[in-house]
Structure formats: structure tokens, C-alpha cells
Amino acid sequence: MIIRNAFAGDVDAITLHNCLMAMETESKTLDEAIVKIAVEAAINDPGKGFYLMAEIEGEVAGSLMVTYEWSDWRNKNIWWIQSVFVRENHRRKGIYKALYAKVVELAKAHSVKIIRLYVEHENTKAQATYESLGMQKSNYLLYEAEI
Assign residue 104 a region: left if phi > 0, alpha if psi is -120 to 50, beta otherwise? Predict the structure, then answer.
């Protein structure tokens, strides 16, 4: 397995992953054209974040995105893991574990002290995976307003 940063040639794979993940986890159909533009924007602007790709024998098996939140309490960035997707035929093979390990390695190299993610309440399999890697439920609830 190879874990690497995404590049422009990964846009289609990441777009597909995002659309499949939205359908699988939230039963939402995303506008593929908008997702593709957004993925391209993130790959072209490292200030937005970065993607990591997992490859097995030259095939993309999974991906995730890391975005940044500035903490004025800590004077440091908090990294958010987003858009996690592992292709069905590669699940239960340690793909997410390897991606997460790379995020932790990079976070340490950049003096990041907190890594966060959000997960659907019903996605108990993902929650169990995150907890098995040492992540804990936070004290915060997530609120949002769609504008």
C-alpha cells in the first residue's frame, strides 16, 4: 500500500469517492460537476487543505481530505479529516488506518496538536474504526446553518 498526496490526476477519483460517500452515508446525490470544481480548487490551493490517497497495486483504494481550523485558544491549527472514503472492495484491509497514520505523522511534523472529524450518528462502523485508532468523542456538538 502506498499513501501519497493527491495531484491533479486524482480529481476524478476523489470526485467519485465524494459522490459515493454522500450517497452511502447520507443518501444524498451530489452535483458531480460542482464536486469536481471544488476538488480541483482544493488541489490547486493548498491553503484550503490537502488530500491523501491510498493505492494498492496502482489502484486508488481510498482517500481523505484534511482542512484547517485556526484556534485562537491554542495559537495553532486544528486539522479536520473530511471526505473519508474507502472503496468497497478494499474495506477492512487497513486503508483508513494507513491514511490516518499519515495524517498523524504530518500533523506532528506541523506542530498540530488536535485532529478532528465528524461522523453521522448512525455510522457506527466508522465510529468503531475511529475509536480503535485512539480517537475519542469530543465534548462538542456540531451545529450548522445552511445559507
Answer: alpha
Grid cell of 10 as nine digits: 486524482
What the block records as the C-alpha cell of 130 is 475511529
Predicted model pTM: 0.92
Short-list 22, 14, 19, CA closest to 42: 14
Rounded Cα–Cα distance for residues 137 and 135 (Å): 7
Q: How many CB atoms are located within 10 Å of the residue 123 CB?
A: 14
Categorise residue 124: left if φ over 0, alpha if ψ from -120 to 50, beta otherwise.
alpha
- Sign of the torsion formed by the C-alpha atoms of 93, 52, 100 and 87: negative
Give the tens place of pLDDT for each residue, 47-69.
999 999 999 999 999 999 999 99
